Amino acid sequence: MKKIFPLFAAGSLCLALTLSACAPSIDLLPENIIDDDYDNYYEIFVGSFCDSDGDGRGDFNGVTQKLSYIRDMGYTGIWLMPICSSPSYHKYDVADYYAVDETYGTMEDFENLVGEAHALGIKVIIDMVFNHSSRKNEWFKQFLVARADNDESNKYYDYYNYSSSPIDGYAVAGSGDRTVYYEARFDASMPDLNLDNEDLKEDLKAIMRFWLVDKEVDGFRFDAVRYFYYGDSEKSSDFMGKLKQWADEILEKEKGEGAHAYFVGEDWSTEGEISKFYEKGNGSTFFAFNVAQSDPSYIFDAISSASNPAIPGADYAANVFYRSMGRLAEIAHGGISVPFLDNHDTTRVASTFRNRTDKIKFAYGLLSMYSGNTFTYYGDELGVEGVKDDGDETLRVGMLWEDNTELLTPYASMGKDASAYYHYGSVQKQLSDPNSILNYYKLCNNARNAFPALMRGTAERLENANENVLVLKKTYRDESITVVINFSTEEQTVQSVAGTLRQSICVSGSIEESGFALTMPGFSIAILL
Question: Tell me: the pLDDT tens digits for 338-374?
């Protein structure tokens, strides 16, 4: 089914900041949104995004206040990092799978967020952690009791992977003859679940039903899927396939035939292993992260090659990028690729390309040309910086909504000086500047929403005499568009390009069309129809 959504004007932001009057003059096209599983996703760490009540940390109501901004930016889906009750700041150690963390607000606040998001045409997926829990989870407490009493009748007796003797990757609990060693590959505070336990499987099904049916989320991002069974990608991918099957069965039973969940699985490994996860997901709506993110990534490699005279130039970059498009499609086995530039586990793209605004922009421009679902980590549209080696907390810096304000952040050790992370200004500043990073992101998202073939189409390379330029035909059903990408930092002229220029995406300057020729500034993208 096809839905046409109007462009949403920017709404109110934190601290009652109204931005609708600041909308710049950028060339946005009418959207042509198809009701399927293709979307532009925006990743949010709730605790650092927007504080609605002045307590110094982000919350659900803050996210709700920002939904109009998110939708106006062209994002049609949000991924909320873990929201369940947890003792840690990152919340990947779940204490209660049926409760939201009280620092983020109430369950009613969350339900309101989901309802408001859906009203704006925004899907909501949440992080789900099924490979381990918190030590404070009632399951683990009961597991320790059952092990101490040697009570095999206790349902929690083998809810976790355990040993009677020390093993590498295991932590210890208890003492003396009641000592138990439990698997904890990530941290001693996060004991690994025994996913072969039949009672546990039923609990996991019930948890998925609670969030998918009762709370109406649209799916899950699953953490560390390759570690469901440590060192066994075959069993891990099999289990991922089972989770998808269970979720779809639940939804079909509750909502009718064809109802299904959207799954994303995190896997930082080889393309071969990721391909296996796609295959086990039956090529429907199951995806794995890190498809486009190799070392340093197809996109980063292409951009570096185009702008560094010490290595192959723009012609090499164009070839690298085109081959990556085919590789992503091949890996996905008919599923949907999930290319991205960074997330909460990696150095921010702006830090990778420090002081090169053209590269920061062009990286997102290239990302937007991939078929599949792009994921943007909050703040990237502002050029926020953060370096992995400086610690994970620096990758969760507070969002800067207004100029001349301290950062919203729950981490005192980071400080509140916005200038340490934001070199390009706030949302308020960048919304009013048509040449800002923010408005470049907005333009890219708009193109993906305007041309279904851009997000969903198969890519075919067209002959072109200028080796610095890549010309593609992307086809989806009865729509074909031509995408022309100048990988050079210098102006290039491209001859004999069929179609009429419909959208120009430039890091600076503009594209000129004369007959069947395009004159394109460095690092620019043209879309023709």
Answer: 888 889 999 999 998 887 899 999 999 999 999 999 9
Query: Phi and psi at residue 312, in whole multiples of 5°?
Result: -50, 150
Sign of CA dihedral 114, 115, 116, 121: positive
Reference 74, options 141, 28, 27; nearest CA is 28
d(CA 158, CA 398): 40
| Sheet-wide strand order for 469-476 | 458-461, 469-476, 479-486, 524-528, 501-506
Give me 517's structure tokens.
């020729």
Q: Map out the domains of the chain with their CATH numbers.
A: 2-128+195-453 (3.20.20.80), 138-183 (no CATH), 458-528 (2.60.40.1180)
Q: Which helix (DSSP H) or strand (DSSP E) does residue 525 occupy? A: strand 524-528
**Is 257 designated active site?**
no
Contact 40, 442 (CB under 8 A): no
Full-prediction pTM beyond 0.90?
yes
Q: Which pLDDT score is estimated for 313? A: 64
Active-site position among 101, 127, 218, 266: 266
- C-alpha dist (Å) from residue 475 to 285, 331, 449, 472: 20, 19, 15, 10
d(CA 415, CA 243) in angstroms, rounded, equals 41
- The catalytically annotated residue of 223, 342, 380, 381 is 223
Is 35 an active-site residue?
Answer: no
Q: What is the DSSP string of 372-386?
A: S--EEETTGGGT---
Residues 376, 377, 380, 385, CA torsion sign:
negative
Per-residue tokens: 117: 């998001």
Residue 99 has pLDDT above 90, yes or no: yes
Residue 516 per-residue DSSP state: T
- Alpha carbons 380 and 360: distance in angstroms, whole number: 9
Q: Alpha-carbon distance 511 to 483, whole Å? A: 13
342 contacts: CB under 8 Å, gap ≥ 6: 348, 349, 352, 377, 380
Q: Are 38 and 373 in contact (CB under 8 A)?
A: yes
Q: What is the DSSP string of 108-162?
A: HHHHHHHHHHHHTT-EEEEEE--SB--TTSHHHHHHHHHHHTT-TTSTTTTSB-E
Task: Reply yes or no on whether the pLDDT at 415 is more than 60.
Answer: yes
Does pLDDT of 379 surpass 60? yes
